[in-house]
Design goal:
By secondary structure, the protein is α+β, with helices and mostly antiparallel strands. It is built from 5 helices and 11 strands. The longest helix is centred in the middle third of the chain and has 18 residues.
């Protein structure tokens, strides 16, 4: 899928189908001490293609490393989710630099709406994932009104598990996938951190 800016000053983008993508609702943009999180949009496609093609970033994610076409399809679905649910995936920016993504997606296995996050390897170890994922989780509970948010991490992915625990999510279940233990975390609205 290719995207191009429309000639108007509306902040809209036109895809191959000729349909306009909705402008980003500024009420969905979050600011933390260091980061800006805004709903993913067509301008993020080149960054997302690189991020999701990197085995060091997406090798352990559900769906694994993705082709550019898969990324474009997922981006279109993510943008649609914002309009349908008022919650979805955010681009994570530190200054003007794209550092990764975080947000809420429906899991294809039916387990529920799940927090996801992925940042560049060079952004790790600086608290970027924790800061971004925590902001996305608070948004999901406080602004989108979600009662329950889950997250799933591979049992041996200690970095992701530390992030999930540090933002107040608790282990609630586990299951096997492709020979690996997958740990399910959850956050409930009445027990969310920072409330």
């Amino acid at each position: 899928m290719r995207w191009s800016r429309t000639g108007s000053n509306t902040g809209r983008w036109r895809g191959d189908s000729g349909r306009l993508a909705a402008p980003v609702n500024q009420n969905w943009t979050l600011r933390t001490a260091r980061l800006v999180l805004r709903p993913v949009s067509a301008v993020d496609l080149p960054h997302l293609i690189r991020l999701k093609a990197d085995p060091a970033v997406f090798g352990q994610m559900l769906g694994g490393v993705q082709s550019p076409w898969q990324v474009a399809d997922e981006l279109a679905a993510d943008m649609k989710d914002w309009g349908a649910r008022g919650v979805g995936m955010f681009a994570v920016l530190e200054g003007a630099k794209f550092q990764g993504m975080t947000g809420i997606q429906a899991r294809p296995d039916g387990r529920g709406l799940a927090l996801r996050f992925a940042v560049w390897p060079e952004a790790r170890g600086r608290g970027i994932a924790r800061e971004a994922a925590g902001a996305a989780l608070r948004f999901a509970h406080d602004r989108a009104g979600l009662d329950r948010v889950i997250a799933v991490a591979r049992g041996d992915n200690f970095g992701s598990r530390m992030v999930l625990g540090s933002i107040g999510m608790s282990e609630s279940d586990a299951f096997m996938r492709d020979g690996h233990i997958m740990v399910v975390y959850e956050s409930l609205l009445d027990s969310a951190v920072g409330r």
